[in-house]
Amino acid sequence: MAAEAGDIFLDTNILIYAYSDTELEKKKRALSILAFESVVISTQVINEFVWIMNRKFNVEFDSLKIIIDNLFDLYKVCIISQASIQRAIEFSKRFSFSHWDSLMLASALEAGCTIFYTEDLQDGQNVDNQIVIINPFIRNAG
After folding, report:
1. Are 121 and 92 in contact (CB under 8 A)?
2. pLDDT tens-digit series, residues 54-76
3. CA 89 centroid distance within chain
4. Which residues have a Cβ under 8 Å from the Cβ of 139 and sit 6 or more positions away?
């Protein structure tokens, strides 16, 4: 799935904040991103979201199925490819990122995104002159 100009890739934590009530300022920012940005997520993000929302926030699986259907309807969802997995391994080696963060970054690049919203990596880091990592909670990104 090719991204359009201005598409941004979301880390799982952005979705978690949007659907939880633990940090209200982050929830407000996450909801703004979901409402006003052209969002791309991967199947990895969706699976991590299901796991965390069920285990940490006790959201029932039946409710999660409805939320997941909505995510597929509202946002671009990319499937993790073999090429993304290989690229993620290279990113993990080169940048010492976790494999899971590297896999999201590789998926974002494969989808053609130029911005990756996360609070887990270095804000402002430019990877291969193709994508910029932005922590949307420490600056008004987008």
Report:
1. no
2. 999 999 999 999 999 999 999 99
3. 18
4. 123
Q: What does the pLDDT look like over 80-123, one tens digit per residue?
A: 999 999 999 999 999 999 999 999 999 999 999 999 999 998 89
- Read off the pLDDT of residues 4-40 as tens digits, 9 standing for 90 and up: 557 999 999 999 999 999 999 999 999 999 998 899 9
- Residues 69-72: contacts with CB under 8 Å, at least 24 apart: 71/15, 71/41, 71/46
129-137: long-range contacts at Cβ-Cβ below 8 A with a sequence spacing of 24 or more? 131/9, 131/105, 133/105, 136/14, 136/29, 136/30, 136/33, 137/25, 137/26, 137/29
User: What phi and psi, each to the nearest 5 degrees, are found at residue 8?
Assistant: -120, 145
In the numeric block, which tokens belong to residue 77? 């969802």
Alpha helix (H) residue ranges in the chain? 12-19, 24-36, 43-55, 61-74, 82-95, 99-110
Q: In angstroms, rounded to a whole number, what is the distance separating the alpha carbons of residues 113 and 110?
A: 8
Does the reported pTM lie above 0.85?
yes
